[in-house]
Structure formats: structure tokens, C-alpha cells
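comment on this one:
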Amino acid sequence: MTAVLAILGAGSSSRAGVDKVLADLGGHPILTWSLQAGRVAGCFREIVVVAPAANVAAFSAATRAFAGVRVISGGATRTASSWAALDAAPDADVVAVHDAARPFVPPSLLHRCVEIAEAEGSAVAGLPLADTIRRANEAGASREEIERDGLWAAQTPQVFRREMLEKARAVAGDRSFSDDAAAVVAAGLSVRMVPGERRNLKITTFEDLAYARELVDKGLVGLAAPVVIRSK
């Protein structure tokens, strides 16, 4: 099967206070880390980067070091950006969707999810919840404790056979979802959860970005391999 990696970076990044996808992390744009992981995974024919419509040029410049990468304009919502990526890879049998804001995704996790999706139709990385979960009101007052058995914190990559995403899009119409797994489930399809990794954290706030930089500075995480600049 032919697999394509779609890296979503078209969000506004408003909670981080900066354009987090192009922000510096260990001397490289955050986007570079996911690109490198996708290349090292060795299972993708192509990588499609989904950028904000107003920032395609900057994203293209950030991806210049990588062969086999295309930058396209995203939509107004995360779901619209996923559909744009699907359209950009019409010959892909399997589409892996990954958030550019998760720079520390291991290549092995990408590869494992693709293999499972090829065999079973889907593979969504996530972590079973270990902490006690409580529901609270707007004032912060605890109302109830929620049974955590069977609950997962979803991550990316989220990998699907093309026909599953096509059915999800047909059923979704103009609706938007928090992630692709939610769109697929809304279409009445089941999703296979796959154990992710703690280091596959998402950079949402400025504090997250500072923590990610601390991990890099301490040598606790690093690029999967040196970035190789292609000749012009």
C-alpha cells in the first residue's frame, strides 16, 4: 500500500503566543522535527504539509531541506485541513495525519501505526489515562469522579485507510471535529487505539514551548537524524 504523511500546521497558534510551528526548537523550526521523523520512518511515499493560507511561503522555506515534501493551504478548521490533505494525496491508500505541534513523535510510532492501519484500517496513537479524572463546574468545584477504565488521551499520528476518511468526510458534511478519529467514529466506523509515547507531547501554550526547549537543551530529546540539505 502507498502511504502519505499529512502534517497539519494551519492552526492559529493563538494559545502559544507565537507561530509555534515555525518557532525555534533546538536550532530548527518545530515543523522540521516532524518532517525528519516522517523521513526516518521510511514508510511514506510523500509528505504533505498543510499550512495557513497566508503563510504558505514561510512554510515552504522551512521545508526546503526536505525532498518529497509539498506545502498546501489548509482550511478554516482542523477538519477542513485534513480534508485538504486527503485531496492532495489522491493516490494514497493510507493517510497518516500528524499535528506539527507534536515535534517529538518517534519514527517508530509512525511506522507502527502505518503497519496497523494497513492491516486493520486504522491506528490512532494515544495513552491510557492513569490519573484520577474529575468533572468540575466553571468555578472549579469538583462535581464527580469519572471512571478512567477504557479512557485514552488521543495523540497523533492518526492513520487511516483512505476509504475510511472518505466515508467520514461524506458523513461529516460541514461539521468539524477535534481530530480525525472523532470524524471517523461519527461516521459509524471503529477506530483502533495504539499505545503512543509520553514524549509525544503537544505544544499548545508558551509554557509547553518552554518545556520542549528545556528537554532539547538537556539532551533528553533530539532529531531522529541530521537534517540533510538537498542540492539546488
